[in-house]
Design goal:
mainly alpha; two-stranded antiparallel ribbon
């Protein structure tokens, strides 16, 4: 920094701990009978009042949540902590090692036999999403990206990438379909997928979501889909050759269709090893999951869906499922797999990619009694338009790729 105040995140955190006070007390109003303070204090209280209004929306009373993870007066404190972790992350960014994470945030995570537990910060992020798109939602996305980046930390004291994908997938499904305390509004999943900055993680998450919420889905084939497997103990991934040869330099995104991290010990020299936190599923597994039909039958679920009417619940599942399929394609495009990998290029050139995508959307239409046929009721018509718009967006990706590889 240029001649200014030196940023010392460890000292800031230590000072915060030594105050022995919770976030709400930091921003509470002065007790009656005490001096009002300087004009600076008055200005600070006005800022806090604005924060309280934002975090206490009358249309969504905070008292409705049985276990509120963020106090009504703690919004400014949460934003300060997120900013602190982001600056700490920037200070420890290591592009050469494909690592960008906040050691301070990692230190706050408890360890539960033997994994790092992200349930508390993840619950706070979900809470921020509950109010819909806005400043609080953006803050939740910033926190979610901080959590995801913890999986890029070097082992052994890191967040398991498999566990990271599994817990975030489970949380998004729970709070869109099941949890009555923190219910995420429609289109939340699309906004979350858009806000995730790591394309490899996003692809893994979307594939696991599709496998979890689809008929005949096999979650265990995808990263995070097998909770009984403790993955990524060493974080060292032998550089394995893929089915297709590279045609040019590409991001390090080793494919692995096993559903666990490709991180096993190797006798090769350390120079031949690389840490890949989010290994991508294989091409065949991606094509398989893209073609799956959404699961609209909840009879086999361990939990009971929220008390929507049937049309609302069906619309939510269909739209979220279609968005997950679209963002698998968006991740492929962001990673430029069709440009760097011969097997992905061949799948586009011979039409297998388009066939899988079209099969998935066709199965969704059949599951929803074909809402695109023009005979749907008014409530279903909006769902049909949403699905058609998502399918058209997927078609744009396919058209561009086919023109590129022709």
């Amino acid at each position: 920094m240029d001649g200014g105040e030196i940023f010392d995140p460890e000292a800031d955190i230590m000072a915060l701990r030594n105050q022995k006070t919770d976030a709400a007390a930091l921003y509470s109003t002065p007790q009656k009978g005490k001096a009002s303070g300087s004009r600076r204090q008055t200005k600070a209280k006005n800022v806090v009042k604005e924060e309280e209004e934002e975090w206490s929306d009358e249309d969504e009373p905070m008292d409705s949540f049985n276990s509120q993870p963020v106090g009504n007066n703690a919004g400014a404190a949460l934003e300060w902590l997120v900013l602190l972790y982001e600056r700490d992350q920037q200070e420890h960014k290591n592009t050469a090692a494909n690592s960008e994470y906040s050691p301070l945030l990692l230190q706050q995570l408890p360890v539960t036999s033997p994994r790092k537990d992200i349930s508390t910060p993840l619950k706070i992020a979900i809470f921020c999403f509950a109010g819909g798109v806005g400043p609080r939602f953006t803050l939740g996305l910033r926190l979610l990206n901080l959590i995801i980046n913890l999986a890029t930390a070097p082992p052994p004291d890191h967040l398991s990438p498999s566990e990271c994908v599994r817990q975030i997938n489970a949380a998004l499904i729970r709070h869109t379909l099941y949890d009555p305390d923190i219910r995420l509004p429609l289109d939340t999943l699309q906004a979350v997928f858009t806000g995730i900055r790591n394309p490899s993680f996003r692809m893994c998450l979307c594939c696991l979501y599709l496998a979890t919420r689809s008929i005949d889905g096999e979650p265990s084939k995808y990263l995070g889909g097998n909770p009984s497997v403790e993955s990524n103990r060493t974080g060292l991934n032998p550089l394995k050759s893929r089915r297709g040869k590279r045609t040019s330099a590409a991001p390090s995104t080793t494919s692995n269709g096993s559903g666990v991290d490709a991180s096993t010990p190797s006798t090769a020299s350390s120079a031949s090893k690389a840490y890949v936190p989010f290994p991508l599923p294989s091409l065949d597994d991606v094509l398989s999951v893209l073609a799956l039909a959404p699961k609209l039958d909840f009879e086999d679920d361990l939990e009971v869906p929220l008390n929507f009417n049937d049309a609302d619940l069906e619309a939510r599942v269909l739209v979220d499922h279609a968005n997950a399929r679209l963002y698998v394609l968006a991740s492929i495009g962001k990673l430029q797999l069709h440009m760097h990998e011969d097997n992905w290029r061949d799948a586009i050139k011979d039409g297998r990619m388009r066939q899988a995508v079209e099969a998935g959307f066709r199965a969704a239409r059949e599951a929803a009694d074909d809402p695109f046929d023009g005979t749907s009721a008014e409530g279903e018509e909006d769902m049909g338009q949403r699905l058609k718009a998502i399918e058209d967006a997927a078609g744009v990706y396919l058209d561009l790729w086919e023109a590129t590889v022709a």
